[in-house]
Amino acid sequence: MQECMRFTSRWLTLLCLSLMLWTAVAESTHNHPNKTESASCSICVVAHSATPAAHCNLARLVFSTIGLLQEEQVIAKARLGIFELGSRGPPAA
After folding, report:
1. DSSP secondary structure of 14-32
2. What Å distances lie between residue 64 and 14, 19, 59, 60, 61, CA to CA?
3. Residue-wise pLDDT tens digits, 15-74
4. pTM for this structure?
5. What's the sign of the alpha-carbon dihedral 44, 48, 49, 52?
6. Residues 6+ apart with CB under 8 A from 30
7. Residue 87 DSSP SS3
8. Which of 37, 63, 85, 92 could cross-link to 32 by cystine, CB 3.0-4.6 Å?
9. First to last CA, the chain
10. How far apart are CA 4 and CA 67, in angstroms?
């Protein structure tokens, strides 16, 4: 059952990808001998229609102080571990 699903899903994926590829090729390479045919073609109408302009109303930015940063000095205490005292390289042969 699992292999049948894999086989089916693989073929469906390839079918969808090939349909998308052929649609992209058909849309980008199609042409019309005269302008009357291109006026009724749905692909041409969509391709040459005016795109809507994006409108955006930005709010006016207001900067205000909400607090002050108070720094505090931190001093870390250094520790020397026992294992660091006895570490050395391998003996030379």
Report:
1. HHHHHHHHHHHHHHHH---
2. 57, 56, 15, 13, 10
3. 999 999 998 888 888 888 887 777 788 888 877 777 777 777 778 878 877 777 778 887
4. 0.41
5. positive
6. 41, 43
7. coil
8. 37
9. 63
10. 64
Task: Give me 57's structure tokens.
Answer: 């109303």
DSSP secondary structure letters along 46-81: HHTSPPPPP---PPPP--------------PPP---
- Write down the pLDDT at residue 80: 64
Residue 64 is which amino acid? S
Q: Distance (Å, rounded) from C-alpha 41 to C-alpha 49?
A: 12
Token match 């607090």: residue?
Answer: 67
Name the token pair of 58. 């930005």
How confident is the model over 41-57, as pLDDT tens digits? Answer: 888 887 777 777 777 77
